[in-house]
Amino acid sequence: xxxxxxxxxxxxxxxxxxxxxxxxxxxxxxxxxxxxxxxxxxxxxxxxxxxxxxxxxxxxxxxxxxxxxxxxxxxxxxxxxxxxxxxxxxxxxxxxxxxxxxxxxxxxxxxxxxxxxxxxxxxxxxxxxxxxxxxxxxxxxxxxxxxxxxxxxxxxxxxxxxxxxxxxxxxxxxxxxxxxxxxxxxxxxxxxxxxxxxxxxxxxxxxxxxxxxxxxxxxxxxxxxxxxxxxxxxxxxxxxxxxxxxxxxxxxxxxxxxxxxxxxxxxxxxx
Length: 271
Fold this sequence. Notes:
Residues 35-115 form the PKD domain. The chain is an alpha+beta fold. Helix content is 15%, strand content 39%.
């Protein structure tokens, strides 16, 4: 190989290596491939003729999916670009909109000021009346008073079994007292926690009752705080969000946990 061909050969090889290196190290513009992130915003207006009811309307840019948080400790609610929110009690609620775009999501927050209470619809509701008619206890006569699973198969992980002795005398009472909703839990000695009968975890707590339900059920009960300080039925629910699946004058089925989380389904009877 003469000198000229040697130089030409190695120059071409060098150029090829530079081209390959540049191609391999080229930065990918993933953001442009995903699209533009949403810019969340919404407006609030009172609904004429409906007490304590507000229309929330998204004014977001670049959004295709919406989730709403009414500030009621009930978590996110899937919905369209507009949704009605109802508030039983007066107060200031920090309402949030999660607007999802192709390139990501954004959150907008606005305070909604409710100036007066509106208990009448709840107090007159047929399901609420059944809930508060008497005290409830877990159904010790049932072969499966508590099952554990998923939303589509509530008994998938645990199909049920007999109650432990310290569970049998636990009771729960829902009342409306002194212009407030109150839940009273009485352990009557011991509370089952971590698989063992332990200290008495009796409590009194506020609760909210709503006919808005995500997933199966006819009404939602929400209690503030976290287990094991606050709970219904079992001390390890995935959340303190409970759905009334069914209720009669003598029986009630509650399901703890939201759609997508582990659920505990519990059978209660009139005490």
